[in-house]
């Protein structure tokens, strides 16, 4: 496990930070259960950061609650996809789960597209989009005011390239925003969950999965989620069995 990240945020949020600092102290003393409670209290105060979720994930990991550890490492990465320590600890926690469900093969283009959309948060892709737009605008200005044929040809080529890049960046921005706002990925937090064929406790059992397993929520009814596993299995589970990332 990697180091504890402190301090969590600036001291202008004194009540929440007090809980967080208490959690840090308890974590250092090895009282991971109390540390997790303090970090959860910090979240309840409205304070959230990748470091906070990382520390909470570490506390749950030491307590043997793999589902909640994985959930919080995932939440840390949702806020900051470049958080290396969270990614490494997530891989460690995932290696200790009971279920190792195979990934449904995806076309190369889909994998490539998903990796691009998740490389940055929507805010990051928005900055990239604005930068390309500014480049396009500058190229158009040069194209209109350039005083030589060579300069105008270069500006024309640059404007065409920027236009294509802007189209691509627009598509990526929409894709990244949609994925981020969909909030459909979830983690099993109960020790084991029996998946059902339909949203009814009396319906046929499909399979049993365990804490830490990742699923995608595709539909919901009162008390139930329809989920899809990484191997393509579709089933229903109770809402208290999983938590959205």
Structure description:
By secondary structure, the chain is α+β, with helices and mostly antiparallel strands. A hairpin with a 5-residue loop joins strand 5 and strand 6. 56% of the residues lie in helices and 15% in strands. Helix 3 (50-62) runs antiparallel to helix 4 and helix 4 runs antiparallel to helix 5. The protein starts with 13 loop residues before the first helix and ends with a strand.
Which short descriptors sum up this protein?
five-stranded antiparallel beta sheet, 245 residues, globular, 3 domains, Serine Threonine Protein Phosphatase 5, Tetratricopeptide repeat, two-stranded antiparallel ribbon, alpha+beta, SH3 type barrels
Radius of gyration: 23 Å
Largest sheet: 5 strands, antiparallel
Order of helices and strands: HHHHHHHHEEEEEEE
Structural class: alpha+beta
Quickly count the helices.
8
Beta-strand proportion: 5-15%
Count of spatially separate domains? 3
Distance between the termini: 21 Å
What is the correct CATH architecture of the largest domain?
Answer: Alpha Horseshoe
Which stretches are poorly predicted, pLDDT < 50 over at least 5 residues? 9-13
The largest sheet has its strands arranged as 6-5-4-1-7
- Assign a percent range to the helix content: 55-70%
Number of strands: 7
CATH superfamily of the largest domain: Tetratricopeptide repeat domain
Which topology of the largest domain does CATH recognise? Serine Threonine Protein Phosphatase 5, Tetratricopeptide repeat
């Amino acid at each position: 496990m990697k180091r504890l990240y402190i301090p969590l945020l600036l001291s202008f949020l004194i009540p929440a930070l007090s809980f967080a600092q208490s959690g840090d102290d308890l974590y250092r003393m090895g009282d991971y259960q109390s540390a997790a409670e303090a970090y959860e209290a910090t979240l309840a105060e409205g304070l959230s950061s990748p470091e906070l979720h990382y520390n909470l994930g570490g506390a749950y990991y030491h307590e043997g609650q793999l589902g909640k550890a994985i959930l919080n490492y995932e939440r840390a990465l949702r806020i900051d996809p470049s958080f290396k320590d969270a990614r490494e600890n997530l891989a460690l926690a995932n290696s200790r789960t009971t279920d190792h469900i195979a990934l449904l093969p995806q076309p190369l283009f889909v994998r490539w597209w998903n990796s691009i959309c998740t490389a940055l948060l929507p805010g990051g892709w928005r900055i990239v989009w604005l930068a390309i737009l500014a480049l396009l605008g500058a190229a158009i200005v040069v194209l209109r005011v350039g005083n030589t044929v060579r300069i105008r040809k270069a500006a024309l080529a640059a404007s065409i390239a920027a236009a294509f890049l802007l189209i691509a960046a627009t598509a990526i921005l929409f894709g990244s925003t949609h994925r981020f706002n969909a909030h459909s990925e979830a983690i099993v937090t109960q020790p084991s969950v029996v998946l059902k064929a339909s949203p009814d406790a009396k319906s046929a059992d499909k399979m049993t999965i365990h804490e830490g397993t990742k699923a995608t929520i595709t539909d919901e009814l009162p008390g139930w989620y329809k989920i899809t596993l990484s191997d393509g299995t579709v089933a229903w589970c109770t809402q208290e069995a999983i938590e959205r990332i």
